[in-house]
Amino acid sequence: MKRLLAALCLCSVTAVAHAEIAQKFGPYEVHYNALTTDELLPEVARAYKIERSKTRGMVTMSVLKQNEVGVLSPVPAKLTVYVTNLNQQLANVEMREIKEGTAIYYLGEFRVTPPDTLKFTATVEVAGEPRHELVFNQKFYR
Question: Span of the secretion signal (predicted)?
Answer without folding.
Answer: 1-19
